[in-house]
Design brief:
With about 375 residues, the protein is of the alpha+beta class. It has three domains: about 110 residues, Butyryl-Coa Dehydrogenase, subunit A, domain 1 (Orthogonal Bundle), CATH 1.10.540; about 110 residues, Butyryl-CoA Dehydrogenase, subunit A, domain 2, CATH 2.40.110.10; about 150 residues, Butyryl-CoA Dehydrogenase, subunit A, domain 3 (Up-down Bundle). Helices cover about 50% and strands about 15% of the residues. The chain has a four-stranded mixed sheet. The chain has a four-stranded antiparallel sheet with strand order 2-3-7-6, with no helix packed on it. α8 runs antiparallel to α10. The protein starts with 8 loop residues before the first helix and ends in a 5-residue tail after the last helix. It binds acetoacetyl-coenzyme A. Acetoacetyl-coenzyme A binds next to α4, α6 and α10.
């Protein structure tokens, strides 16, 4: 089946429903959440009631059974109103439910996937460490088998949802010298002995997404909580990130769309040189570029989502979507501030928050440099490098 970017009636309905939720519930709270940095528990509960916490999980496991294009649409709409809530949902959907659905045993699906997909629980993903970010295979958190348990020791940082999560997927190595071949994935509950949260991360943007350090001090994990096979963890982490990057592309689209919307409204109402600034060609060109780049990013994100549903491996499509959408988002946010002039630099105006929120989309779930590396590797495959 070939990629067709025409949205179905069901996908259009997802957009209508989530846009109404975002406008009525999320948008009025977004500035306060940004200020207080409180985890958006109530937003999460209400998103769960709309089946937005396990969107691509089959109904039999507590999810909504939607396709990935619907997921992109939903995360874009949520992020248009509140980028923190966007990533909170993206992590539970893509980085937590995704790998358990794909690699989990039936018992793990019943025990963990069902309550997280229903949104009764919150999931997190622990890959990054103080000494390893882009070079994920260099992680040092250790896993030692002792009888019917594994003992995990190490520190994970920048863990989105970490302050509120009930369950974490933790990547650890049986022998760091083996690099990616030594890594395994574990499902770790918050109250397993030896797991605690460390220092909260005070971030520039998406301030309400509950990022925190997770400390594992000889944390005991039952052997039955190994996700996939021993040594399969790196592939699970990478495959999961292919899906996660589509969610971040969608989040970037939402932030960028909000920047465009704010800029259109401001340029229609702001007067300069005797007319609304929307009549100045300097402003029109900025608006035109923002709209065009965001539409191109949207199509790349839909194509990546389609690939996720139809292809075994979709690293190329996911990285292209994430790279282009995040850079288009950053440019849109930057121009949005510029169009607002001095007001754009004041935190009473939404574009100031959007500018801070936009930056992370070029960094997490693989920096733009890592996306270029993945894309280059994929397009060089099959021929001399
Ligand atoms: N799917 C399945 N397998 C994959 C894969 C994928 N997408 N990518 C690589 N692999 C496999 C390879 O086939 C290879 O397998 P073999 O051993 O069988 O040959 C193996 O994994 C190793 O692959 P590479 O040699 O390509 O690995 P590398 O060490 O060169 O690393 C990398 C590649 C792309 C740089 C990777 O380390 C990477 O993506 N780094 C960025 C990490 C990242 O995105 N971190 C984000 C943290 S999570 C986060 O931000 C969450 C949040 O808070 C929102």
């Amino acid at each position: 089946m070939a990629f067709d970017c025409t949205l179905s009636r069901e996908q259009e309905m997802v957009r209508e429903t989530v846009r109404a939720f975002a406008e009525d519930v999320l948008k009025p709270r977004a500035a306060a959440l940004d200020r207080t940095r409180e985890f958006p528990h109530d937003n999460y509960r209400r998103a769960a009631a709309l089946n937005l916490t396990g969107m691509m999980v089959p109904e039999a496991y507590g999810g909504a059974g939607f396709d990935a294009v619907s997921y992109v649409i939903a995360i874009e709409e949520v992020s248009r109103a509140c980028a923190s809530t966007g990533v909170v949902l993206s992590v539970n959907n893509s980085l937590f439910c995704g790998p358990i659905l794909k690699y989990g045993s039936e018992e793990q699906k019943r025990r963990y996937l069902v309550p997280h997909a229903r949104g009764e629980r919150i999931g997190a993903y622990c890959l990054t460490e103080p000494g390893s970010g882009s070079d994920a295979a260099a992680l040092r958190t250790s896993a030692v088998r002792r009888g019917d348990r594994y003992v995990l020791s190490g520190n994970k940082v920048f863990v989105t949802n970490g302050v509120a999560a009930h369950t974490f997927i933790v990547y650890a190595t049986i022998d760091a010298k083996l690099r990616h071949r030594g890594i395994s994935a574990f499902i770790v509950e918050r109250d397993f002995p030896g797991l605690r949260t460390g220092k909260p991360e005070h971030k520039m943007g998406i301030t309400a997404s509950g990022s925190v350090e997770i400390v594992l001090e000889a944390c005991e994990v039952p052997a039955g909580n190994l996700l996939g096979a021993e040594g399969e963890g790196f592939k699970i982490a990478m495959n999961t990130l292919d899906g996660g990057r589509i969610g971040i592309a969608a989040q970037a689209l939402g932030i960028g769309a909000a920047a465009l919307e704010e800029s259109l409204a401001y340029s229609r109402s702001r007067q300069a040189f005797g007319a609304p600034i929307a009549q100045l060609q300097a402003i029109q060109w900025k608006l035109a570029d923002m709209a065009t780049e965001l539409e191109a990013a949207r199509l790349l994100a839909y194509r990546a989502a389609w690939a996720r549903d139809h292809l075994e491996r979709y690293s190329l499509e996911a990285s292209m979507a994430k790279l282009f959408a995040s850079e288009a988002c950053m440019r849109a946010a930057k121009e949005g501030v510029q169009i607002h002039g001095g007001y754009g630099y004041i935190n009473e105006y939404t574009v100031e928050r959007l500018f801070r929120d936009a930056k992370i989309t070029e960094i997490y779930e693989g920096t733009s440099e890592i996306q270029r590396l993945v894309i280059a590797k994929e397009i060089l495959k099959g021929g001399p490098a």
